[in-house]
Every structure is written in structure tokens, then in C-alpha cells.
């Protein structure tokens, strides 16, 4: 499920709320929220906590 959410964020060109991700992936909202929290802690996505939006992926810089 984490891969589905990451792919939806990757393909989107705008900030996404939990409900938007639910519509795009078909994953239940509370599962999406858990996945978003995990990805934010891992440093893979940018999250705006005030508006509860996923702003996008954090790209890894290659050396």
C-alpha cells in the first residue's frame, strides 16, 4: 500500500489531502494517514501540518 501512495504522490502535480489520496488509490483514509506519517518520519515526503497536505516527494541528491 505504501508503494501505491508514493506513486500517487509522484504522479500528482499539486498538493494532496488525505481524501484526494483515498480517491486516487482506493486505500482507506486512516491507513493513508499512517502511511503519510511513516513517510514523513523517513524523510521521503514534504508535509504541511497546518493544512494536512502532502506537498510532494523529497528528492535524494546523488553524489
Folded structure, characterized:
With 63 residues, this protein is α+β, with helices and mostly antiparallel strands. It has helices at 2-11, 18-25, 29-42, and strands at residues 16-17, 45-48, 53-57. The relative contact order is 0.22. The longest helix is centred in the middle third of the chain and has 14 residues, at 29-42. The model has no long low-confidence stretch (mean pLDDT 88). Strands 1-3-2 form a three-stranded antiparallel β-sheet. The chain has one domain: Arc Repressor Mutant, subunit A. The protein starts with a helix and ends in a 6-residue tail after the last strand. The chain is built from three helices and three strands; from the N terminus they run αβααββ. Helix content is 51%, strand content 17%.
Strand percentage lies at 15-25%
CATH class: Mainly Alpha
Number of strands: 3
Strand order of the largest sheet: 1-3-2
- Secondary-structure element sequence? HEHHEE
The helical percent reads 40-55%
Q: What's the assembly state of these chains?
A: single chain
What is the second-level CATH architecture?
Answer: Orthogonal Bundle
The CATH topology turns out to be: Arc Repressor Mutant, subunit A
What is the structural class? alpha+beta
Give the overall silhouette. Answer: globular
Provide the residue-averaged pLDDT: 88
CATH superfamily: Winged helix-like DNA-binding domain superfamily/Winged helix DNA-binding domain
Distance between the termini: 30 Å
Amino acid at each position: 500500500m505504501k508503494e501505491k501512495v508514493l506513486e500517487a504522490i509522484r504522479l500528482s502535480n499539486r498538493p494532496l489531502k488525505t481524501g484526494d489520496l483515498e480517491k486516487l488509490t482506493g486505500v482507506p483514509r486512516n491507513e493513508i494517514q499512517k502511511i503519510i506519517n511513516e513517510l514523513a518520519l523517513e524523510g521521503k515526503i514534504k508535509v504541511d501540518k497546518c493544512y494536512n497536505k502532502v506537498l510532494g516527494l523529497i528528492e535524494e541528491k546523488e553524489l
